[in-house]
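Reviewers asked in the last cycle whether our approach scales beyond single polypeptides. To address this, we selected a multi-component target totalling 894 residues and predicted its structure end to end. The input consisted of the following lines:
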Amino acid sequence: MRDVISILDFSKSEVLELFELTDEVLSGKFKPRLEGKIVATAFFEPSTRTALSFTSAALSAGAKVLGFSSDEATSVSKGENLADTIRMLENYADCIVMRHKLDGSAKFAAEIAKKPVINAGDGKREHPTQALIDMYTVRKLFGTMEGLTFGFLGDLRYARTVNSMLRILTMFRPRMVYLISPPQLRARAEILEELNYPVKELTDVRDIIGELDVLYVTRIQRERFLDEDEYEKVKESYRLEYRTVEKMKRDSAILHPLPRVSEIDRRIDSMPQAKYFLEASYAVPLRSALLHEVMAGD
Amino acid sequence: MRDVISILDFSKSEVLELFELTDEVLSGKFKPRLEGKIVATAFFEPSTRTALSFTSAALSAGAKVLGFSSDEATSVSKGENLADTIRMLENYADCIVMRHKLDGSAKFAAEIAKKPVINAGDGKREHPTQALIDMYTVRKLFGTMEGLTFGFLGDLRYARTVNSMLRILTMFRPRMVYLISPPQLRARAEILEELNYPVKELTDVRDIIGELDVLYVTRIQRERFLDEDEYEKVKESYRLEYRTVEKMKRDSAILHPLPRVSEIDRRIDSMPQAKYFLEASYAVPLRSALLHEVMAGD
Amino acid sequence: MRDVISILDFSKSEVLELFELTDEVLSGKFKPRLEGKIVATAFFEPSTRTALSFTSAALSAGAKVLGFSSDEATSVSKGENLADTIRMLENYADCIVMRHKLDGSAKFAAEIAKKPVINAGDGKREHPTQALIDMYTVRKLFGTMEGLTFGFLGDLRYARTVNSMLRILTMFRPRMVYLISPPQLRARAEILEELNYPVKELTDVRDIIGELDVLYVTRIQRERFLDEDEYEKVKESYRLEYRTVEKMKRDSAILHPLPRVSEIDRRIDSMPQAKYFLEASYAVPLRSALLHEVMAGD
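The resulting structure, written as structure tokens, was:
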């Protein structure tokens, strides 16, 4: 029984153990048994992928699911504070999977709740289970997570999945990590300070495209820009083009936490480097394995 | 494992087989066993009846259900395209039941998805499972689906259930089909061209009311009219009155896919011809039988 | 198979029986078995606590749950009347748990439906299952429900939980019931006329705070006031203060149906009299026991 708030709540050996369990779920060797358990999906901010994949993971492990998909449908809209809402959910479920727009909200909830809380995205801070899916995909593709060259492209300032990825990489000694973003969306200093591996910041992915093993692309969100023209310009320069991918190593991989809008040219989908749909297919088995680790044997 | 996009995806013998299975579900002789299966209800357009009856059908067969009930709650609202949303859902479920406002969206989804897709209404095109429920009701009431006289009343231009009904009737040689609508809501030429039975179009149901075995009533929607006055006028003339039903044959039947607003006088509910609530009671057993045929034995 | 519309649908001995069953659910001695049953949660008005706690109660008893959480998502938004919506739900579920903004809507639904209807709040009229949870808490705390002194504080005019509480107290001979509210939110005459125990109305809780065994606090809602200033003033005077609670008997109890906004100073949460979170923890076992009584053995 434990909380999952930051990716750093896991030690390296716990990550490896979880990935081995995910292998067994995926191959059918192990079936999580969560009969009699109830999972609450508390999505104060809407999400489809994360909420439905946790739901699918829980249901396929035999657990039941209840919850909500926006704060309009909750007592929050009557003015209730988060602490009271969390105390309520604890009465109804054995585990709370939670997304909230405020940084640190998941940690706050975990302090209130006696039941385990899984952070499914808190503001611009972390989204640890997405990073687990991402790294699991890396491991499946490369057979190792060590010594690889990564590029992160797009919004590195507000993308919580990137924060979780940069942090999990501290366990796996990457050869080099390139951070490719427009100047206004550079990774935050407080994250960069934590990193124990070589990092270079740049603004044009084409400068290093041939070096990459993994290119991790994120969506650039309109609401991060004050100026519509500026947004359009940035969006265009950070759109991944077919011609760019042609220069990638044949066995390199493009990842994306999805949903994507226009940041990856759709013609790339059929190129061998496009691994984001494969990545998405690991969400359910990994989250099943995680729910098992968090809840089984209570 | 198959898709259900148009009613014409079924052969006549498949329809008859499905109806026999529905008989057995209804009588309790057969219980669909979908334990371990997950059904996604992907309602990009809101619906209550269709979504909840599929949910009830799936749950009572032992399957689990996940999904959404409007596209506001989905990544579509973040700009994701339908293909990516469908690819996502495939990872979470064994079958996708889908409603979408665009004509042809269900067919498109079925081309993307490896898992079976069931069309629960695509734009103004088709709603095949509703037509199956309608015809099943006809068979229960008349002992046959052949050689009957049908009238379709109301909006024949935008009502997808009417399209599916007109198409399924090509299997059952109706004696005559009357299409009764205001001029601006006449059935589409491309549907009429497909029909292999006698059809007459008219504007006043009272002209042929005594001839009908089945009167199928549909809702006339305000949004189909540019002019509010015109809508009010049409609505009034296509409202089914008590006096009109008194002229129907005693053993004839009024059907309606529901929900109704004001197009059937509520006093008609207690007349012997009113069969729309009976019709509604067949939705769950028929959809259970259908889910079984689509998913069992995968 | 029965409806639960008003708290007065229960006799005193039925209340006591239900509480004994709840004891057994809570201790794990009895596990409701509702396998194969489907509960519809028909929330025409949003709610989180009531809907999710009924859902948790049903799921943990082995039943399945379907439903909706606002009338926007239903055919009601297409203009369907309540009777037709209820007839629809009956086809999908074995029991309908319903919240609706109209007084008397639950009774109306129960007259339409052959399946049992449980009132989860109808307008400003009743919320019987909340009163059962409240009184169950009283019984757990005091060992008896007889001969106690109660105070009801806040909105006594529109709070349906207070109506249900005042009515259930007619079974338990309270020594005295104080009704403490602003003049514009006094309890309704038609309720007061029904009561068979001593009642005093007043406007300041401090006048009798030391006498109370149970203080039941309710939220004062902005929408009950035409004038914002008036609302702010009233809200302030009916906010329960730390200093006031210090004057309560040590073994007295503060209850609140939750959610609360600002009507209870948060520092009170850690005082011995604060029992509203304990009260909330009884919602699931009591509603499980109730669903069992309503549905088991059909």
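DSSP finds eleven helices and nine strands in chain C. We regard this as preliminary and will revisit it once experimental data from Aim 1 are available.
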